[in-house]
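Please fill in the sequence for the structure shown.

STRUCTURE ENCODING:
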């Protein structure tokens, strides 16, 4: 559930676009994976062949949409998360608030999610290959989006040009991740995103200072 950008559609690395997509077929495949997970089948034992059987499709149908198990699992995990929002683009502050609010909503969704999904995330993090695919397709794009917002803020004079954007990204995103991931007992109340953004901006100082 880490931070970084990306749209709500297919995760980046793996879908082959050779034929028109059938949303019903894709949904049956994703639901087939979820059914296996609900039955307690570990990720390591979920093969493309097994998914094809339970979804009632051929293996080629799956491979036309995903290049392998890891890409398929990434999409399954994305269906359990709130979709990434579009940024308003009205100001750096507004965009940062939307990014943090998305993190807050994902944190709340994780707290409400079943033990099954918690177990799936744990398995994913213990699988270097799967984690690498998830990181590249989901986490890294979200991080790059935040860096782009900060750089545009510097170019527009909304943010000091002498501040390292990589460090600033950690300062903005870190407090929300701590509450959402490390401290499950911490509050994720309404208005938290605005408070974090405004507190960090006040601490760093504006471009005019």
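FILLED IN BY: designer on duty
SEQUENCE:
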């Amino acid at each position: 559930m880490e931070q970084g950008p990306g749209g709500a559609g297919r995760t980046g690395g793996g879908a082959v676009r050779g034929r028109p997509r059938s949303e019903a077929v894709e949904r049956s495949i994703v639901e087939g994976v979820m059914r296996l997970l609900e039955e307690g089948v570990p990720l390591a034992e979920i093969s493309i062949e097994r998914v094809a059987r339970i979804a009632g499709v051929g293996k080629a149908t799956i491979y036309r949409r995903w290049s392998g198990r890891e890409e398929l699992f990434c999409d399954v995990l994305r269906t359990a998360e709130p979709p990434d929002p579009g940024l308003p683009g009205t100001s750096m502050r507004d965009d940062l608030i939307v990014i943090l609010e998305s993190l807050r909503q994902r944190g709340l969704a994780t707290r409400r999610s079943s033990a099954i999904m918690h177990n799936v995330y744990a398995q994913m993090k213990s699988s270097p290959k799967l984690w690498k695919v998830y990181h590249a397709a989901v986490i890294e794009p979200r991080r790059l989006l935040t860096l782009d917002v900060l750089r545009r803020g510097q170019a527009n004079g909304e943010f000091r040009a002498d501040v390292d954007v990589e460090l600033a990204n950690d300062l903005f995103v870190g407090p929300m991740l701590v509450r959402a991931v490390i401290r499950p007992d911490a509050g994720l109340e309404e208005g938290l995103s605005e408070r974090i953004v405004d507190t960090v901006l006040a601490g760093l100082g504006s471009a005019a200072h």
